Amino acid sequence: MAEEKKAQASGVWPKVKPFANGGASGMLATCVIQPIDMIKVRIQLGQGSAATVAKNMLREEGFGAFYKGLSAGLLRQATYTTARLGSFKMLTNKAIAANDGKPLPLYQKALCGLTAGAIGACVGSPADLALIRMQADATLPAAQRRNYSNAFHALYRIVADEGVLALWKGAGPTVVRAMALNMGMLASYDQSVEFFKDSLGLGEVATVLGASTVSGFFASSCSLPFDYVKTQIQKMQPDAEGKYPYSGSLDCAMKTLKSGGPFKFYTGFPVYCVRIAPHVMMTWIFLNQIQKAEKKLGL
Question: How does it sit in the membrane (predicted)?
Fold first, then answer.
């Protein structure tokens, strides 16, 4: 009986482990990156440069403002990254099995990344909406602030005030952004590892750091335009007549292009890149450490 239970457990854990490990590594990385992400959102909302935003936040709102929305950020990682990394591992394993155990070519890894990004974004969209609103709340006039106390309060209020489907407001650009980010991140990461390790002969630590930085840059470049549109859609408020400034993602993109040109989509790119690259790097580092710990424990 004991052996049967052990066999059942061992059969369940390998399937659950990629999801649990992915979520845990993403949440740990978020705890470190949250202040940078907060500054990035404020820049996109037109509050000035990174230095100006950081100085004003510290002076007017205190140090705790840099971690405003952390609960939503952790919830987002617990949903988005759990689903993204877990499904990516499952998809690549199935693809490798279908490929007779041979390593996957780059385009197949990119397709797995695109699919995993879409799955993760659909699952994590409600938490992402809560995060954006909590981060942007302090920038609104006092009468328009939502004053969410935490992520779960935000989700409750959104459902109560706007309906269940409002949890997926801006889900379209969120999904597209996640697909673009994962394609840029995974494709460039694999190529960079080969370059740093095989061509330059760097060690494991230098290879991971270098490849993660390159991966973060390309992930940022591919995803920031979609992230900008997503942020504008998720934080918009109706005017006195009840009309929203944008009818949808395409309308937002066209109006942004007309008013600010293509570079408007890259508002806050340095901070966004600095935020994405370390998060990618730390997610992989934390994931590696978690996997090592599991091996020591025999999990």
Answer: Multi-pass membrane protein
